[in-house]
Specification:
Chain lengths: 314, 304, 490
């Protein structure tokens, strides 16, 4: 095993399994409930109950001019044949496929460089790259909205240097890239820190051995470091996938500045939000949310299944 | 399998010292500088734009990335803190209230529950754990509407509790604490305390809690940040603007500035820009000064 | 995680997903299996929640109102007001509104009424507030007593039984204070459902300096407008105007000016809706503007962006077809006021100079909600909050109350935004007087969203006006049918 043993604040303990089994059997079991109960209450009231209620709502249909009728899975059938929902779904899938590798690349590259270089600049950079995480997504999106504005932001000036006119980065063709940029900016630092911490945990004697064998810095990075943090990468990928399929905040905030390029059903979550709050179709909105949840669930399991082996190799 | 652990900062420093001295790398430094410029550009723009008045923002000299001839930072600050009866300060205070009470509350619940999950094999533990893990995949937009409906049934919408209570929910924090507690608190210590006659609560407070501190601080930090950055829950459950946190408040001003019904003579754009800058300063300062807790403190493990 | 989870905390990512301490299955299988158990448990919970959580939409649906309000308990008094309450024991009425003139108007009302006090809060502008209102209506609780609504959204809330018929509370005596067009906008089936505050007569704002520079005449017809556009283009001047995708209310006003009567809705026949979207008038308007866009004479900048304000202030647009509240909106962007201002305003160009049509865009009203427990007090607020402004308190509003419109200080006011021009006398008042009113759909937000979607295609040339309008017609008709309306088309 590598030297990256598990370090805990307490003394390292003897083989866990037997101790745990022995220890647990002498302990009063049900008292565990008392510790979990306060959280459990909040969990029940603010997660389970609303979910159940939302599911209940999704089984009904209400028209503006009619009353509420029970429609069973009718809303779900409607959702999976709804071009707006499916279009939004396609967008977030394509967006994830492009965004996640991009984010991984940026954060992995940054982490690798920061792991190899330890000057003051590197330490400063590490902090600065992480700073966008401290900024609420709403404010980050607002700022980029101003920056993207051809007249109001710096684009007119920058492009003017090349005697070109500033593009409208929130137009129909450009908005994909614009959103890609905002999200990468917001989250790369966060991923970088995680990868960096994982890199820091690798025993440096491995590098010595590799150097003796004649490996250059690139090879060390690609052949040793990256595989050893593969598990961290997989973890990040899972959560990035979950999060990106539920993409909401940035397009919602930037929609007013996009002159219609970002539609109210641009992503499934936006569609659900819009249905519920703008069009008062709470029942259908709940169905859309659950349909999205189903897709996320399936997508993540497929992904976990596909990467299961990778995790094991290390 | 690479083991998991929550490392102390010391270990990170040790491993750095153990490496070979790096040669000065121009390429790496250039890369880093480019990254820093990219990540800091919006902030720079924000700072520069905060010093401009409305005229400077829309038709100023010097372009968007440099200062205008009128330096209006102090005027803007004055306007920011007095507009509409000083509501911006109120928003900052609200954000602080929600973040601290929600964050502290969520952390307390997470510590208790994590400890319970880690050290007690109570009946229903497996089911609860599965529910906990599954809850991460819940599309949270689905929760906003029914949460609002539930809260309005008991007349609790448009109160601070409508924001604080749902913020106590941090399933991932529970998971973090559970993982840490499993490793960090050896059962022998707990058994020893019990043999000495201490009750469970006493054991928890005197033996377990001190050992959980590093993870607890991390969970606290993350909960506070999460609640501070919260936007759509308060947007949905609050209708009085003097209960808004600063994220929702700035969203309100942004809507007003762009809306088709007039803002009177005040330049809301200046307020939005400066308000954004002022609102992110506390978090950035907190992050920079509490580095040692989150920087070297966490390592990520693997999925089995 | 890629993106923040809305409504909840961002999921903290630096977790250690530890090596599982549980023997046996790996986490995937374990949680999958256990999920089935969880589902069964949840179904049980569902029954319980359904019994307790279902609520019926609010509304004191009574057909004949009580003679007076029930006395208001201390607990029912709204708090967290943006204004100061002068008489704490008086009946307190909650009010949502975003108009910049509200602070002054609310304070004046509170000072003058010892028995009724207003607790005002800004719950958002436009659709932000409407969304909160809709949610409160659906939840049965949480709506204010009085709410500020634009005229185009009244039908959308009438259909939800959310607004009180103010004629039952003495609003009919105010009928004479409003023009015929305004009355049509706020009435349905003979009842008045909202009291107007300000209106939005639409006119042509233009840059006098640019017109002088390029020798343009102020256009009186759309043909002259297009001719001016050509002249500007050939002289290398700026664009003549803007045709945005994201301002559907403006597009709708243009359709109406050409003679389109898009919707026909009356609360008397709640479930019946007349839809006429694909008509010759709307096609004429779209073709006209798309033509100008294609010639490069009109830009397509969205008006909900800072970009548009930049263009206006830097002289990239020679005209701006705007409503009377625009100068107020633009003053916050550092526009020069006073004699140095380059902007002037003229009557809106017409399709036919012999039969002019004037239109309205926006404008606010105040309605009483059916959730209000103090409708008498609330009606008093709605009716008396505005209508007696003077020069200082009016602000950049165009008042709908005729007696303010006729006041000589208002008629002769010189607007510094237009360089001292007597804009009210020359433009706004005659426009408002000639306005005949309009009918709006009961799902105006949805309609506007679809208009934006259509404009995105027609303006870029991806669809012809005929294709766009007929698609919009069928989308709206099928939406209406799905919502349970009987749709009448021409």
């Amino acid at each position: 095993m590598t030297g990256t043993g598990s370090y805990t604040v307490a003394r390292p303990s003897s083989p866990r399994a037997t101790t745990a089994a022995r220890g647990k059997s002498t302990r009063p079991k049900s008292i565990g409930w008392l510790f979990v109960a306060p959280f459990g209450l909040v969990f029940l009231v603010f997660l389970v109950a609303p979910l159940v209620y939302a599911f209940w709502l999704s089984l009904f249909s209400k028209g503006l001019a009619t009353g509420t009728t029970f429609s069973g899975i009718g809303n779900y059938v409607k959702a999976f044949t709804d071009t707006e929902f499916l279009g939004g779904l396609l967008f977030v899938v394509v967006f994830s496929v492009v965004l996640i590798p991009l984010q991984m690349l940026v954060s992995l590259a940054a982490a690798l460089v920061l792991d190899a270089v330890t000057t003051k600049l590197a330490r400063f950079s590490r902090l600065m790259i992480f700073v966008p995480y401290a900024i609420p997504a709403v404010i980050g999106a607002l700022m980029w909205g101003f920056l993207y504005s051809p007249g109001f932001g710096p684009l007119a000036q920058l492009f003017g240097l090349f005697h070109a006119s500033a593009p409208n980065l929130l137009g129909s063709h450009e908005v994909f890239g614009a959103l890609l940029n905002v999200v990468t900016w917001q989250w790369s630092g966060y991923y970088m820190i995680i990868i960096y911490a994982a890199l820091q945990g690798i025993d440096s004697s491995l590098y010595e051995a590799a150097r003796i064998d004649g490996a250059g810095p690139w090879q060390i990075a690609l052949r040793i470091k990256v595989p050893l943090v593969a598990s961290a990468l997989v973890l990040i990928l899972v959560f990035a996938l979950i999060g990106t399929l539920q993409f909401f905040t940035e397009p919602q905030v930037l929609a007013p500045s996009s002159n219609g390029a970002i539609t109210p059903s641009f992503t499934p979550n936006m569609y659900a939000y819009n249905l519920a709050f703008a069009n008062s179709q709470i029942n259908y909105a709940s169905a859309i949310s659950f349909a999205l949840g189903l897709v996320v669930f399936i997508g993540v399991y497929i992904f976990l299944f596909a990467t299961r082996k990778k995790g094991r190799i290390v | 399998m690479t083991a998991i652990g929550i490392k102390t900062a010391d270990k990170a420093v040790q491993s750095v010292r153990g490496r070979a001295k790096p040669k000065p790398r121009i390429g790496a430094h250039v890369f880093l500088i480019v990254l820093v410029i990219y990540f800091l550009l919006p902030l720079w723009w924000l700072i520069v734009a905060s010093t401009k008045d409305a005229h400077g923002l829309f038709s100023g000299t010097g372009g968007a990335l440099w200062f205008d001839k009128t330096f209006a930072l102090f005027d803007n600050l004055g306007l920011l803190f007095t507009y509409n009866g000083g509501i911006y300060l109120r928003w900052l205070g609200n954000s602080l209230l929600y973040a601290v009470s929600g964050g502290v509350g969520a952390t307390a619940l997470a510590i208790l529950a994590g400890y319970g999950f880690a050290k007690f094999a109570f009946p229903g533990r497996r089911l609860s754990l599965a529910l906990l893990l599954g809850s991460v995949m819940v599309p949270l937009t689905a929760l906003v509407i029914p949460t609002f409906a539930m809260l309005s049934q008991v007349g609790m919408t448009n109160t601070i509790w409508a924001v604080i209570l749902p913020s106590l929910l941090n399933p991932f924090g529970v998971y973090l604490m559970m993982v840490y507690a499993t490793d960090a608190i050896p059962d022998e210590l707990l058994d020893a305390a019990r043999v000495d006659g201490a009750g469970e609560l006493r054991t928890f407070l005197t033996v377990a809690l001190p050992l959980l501190r590093p993870a607890a601080v991390t969970v606290l930090l993350l909960s506070v940040v999460g609640t501070w950055n919260n936007y759509f829950l308060p947007l949905a459950v609050l209708s009085s603007d003097n209960l808004f946190p600063v994220t929702v408040g700035l969203g309100l001003w942004d809507g007003l500035a762009n809306s088709a019904s007039g803002t009177g003579t005040t330049s809301l754009w200046s307020l939005i820009i400066l308000g954004s800058l002022v609102s992110i300063i506390p978090l950035i300062v907190a992050f920079l000064s509490l580095q040692r807790y989150w920087r070297g403190g966490l390592a990520v493990g693997s999925l089995k | 995680m890629g993106v923040a989870h809305d409504c909840g905390q961002s999921i903290p990512l630096d977790a250690s997903l530890a090596r599982s301490r549980l023997p046996g299955l790996g986490p995937e299988q374990r949680s999958f299996r256990v999920k089935k158990k969880a589902l069964i448990a949840l179904v049980g919970l569902a029954v319980v929640s359904a019994l307790t959580a279902c609520s019926s939409p609010g509304g004191s649906g009574g057909s004949t109102p009580a003679a007076t309000d029930k006395p208001q308990s201390q607990a029912d008094k709204p708090s967290n007001c943006d204004n100061k309450i002068l008489y704490p024991s008086a009946t307190r009425v909650s009010l949502w509104g975003w108009s910049p003139t509200l602070p002054v108007a609310v304070d004046a009302f509170d000072k003058a009424h010892k028995d009724v006090q207003i607790c005002w809060t800004n719950a958002g502008a436009g659709s932000a507030e409407y969304q909160k209102f809709s949610t409160a209506i659906a939840a049965g609780k949480g709506a204010p007593d009085v709410i500020m609504l634009e005229t185009d959204h009244l039908n959308s809330f009438l259909i939800k039984d959310a607004l009180v018929n103010l004629s039952d509370y003495g609003a009919d005596k105010w009928k004479s204070d409003f023009s015929a067009g305004t009355l049509k906008d706020i009435s349905s089936n003979g009842g008045i459902y909202a009291i107007p505050d300000d209106g939005g007569p639409v006119a042509l704002m233009y840059r006098k300096d640019i017109f002088d520079q390029y020798g343009l005449t102020v256009p009186k017809t759309w043909a002259e407008y297009a001719a001016d556009a050509d002249k500007l283009k050939s002289a290398g001047g700026p664009a003549i105007g803007d045709w945005p995708n994201d301002t559907p209310a403006f597009a709708q006003a243009m359709f109406a000016q050409a003679g389109a009567d898009t919707f026909d809705y009356n609360i008397n026949q709640k479930t019946s809706l007349g839809v006429d979207i694909d008509n010759a008038a709307s096609r004429k308007v779209l073709d006209y503007w798309d033509g100008l866009v294609q010639k490069g004479e009109v830009v397509t900048t969205g008006q909900s962006s800072t970009d548009f304000v930049s263009e206006l202030s830097s002289g990239k647009l020679a005209t701006f077809i705007a409503a009377s509240w625009e100068p107020g909106h633009l003053t916050g962007a550092g526009f020069t006021r006073g004699p140095g201002s380059p902007w002037r305003v003229a009557m809106l160009p017409q399709w036919n100079a012999d039969s002019p049509v004037q239109v309205n865009w926006g404008g606010s009203t105040y309605a009483v909600t059916t959730q209000s427990k103090v409708p008498h007090a609330a009606s008093e607020v709605a009716m008396e909050l505005f209508g007696h402004e003077n020069q200082q308190t009016l602000g950049a509003h165009f008042p709908q109350h005729v007696k303010v419109q006729k006041a000589s200080w208002f008629v002769n006011a010189e607007d510094p935004f237009f360089g001292g021009q007597k804009a009210n006398k020359e433009v706004w008042i005659p426009t408002a007087d000639a306005y005949k009113g309009q009918s709006y759909s009961p799902f105006q937000d949805y309609y506007y969203q679809q208009v934006t979607a259509m404009l995105t295609k027609t303006t870029s040339g991806a669809e012809s006006s005929k294709a766009g309008l007929s698609k919009l017609q069928s989308t709206i008709a099928s939406y209406a049918k799905a919502q349970g309306f009987t749709v009448k088309t021409k």
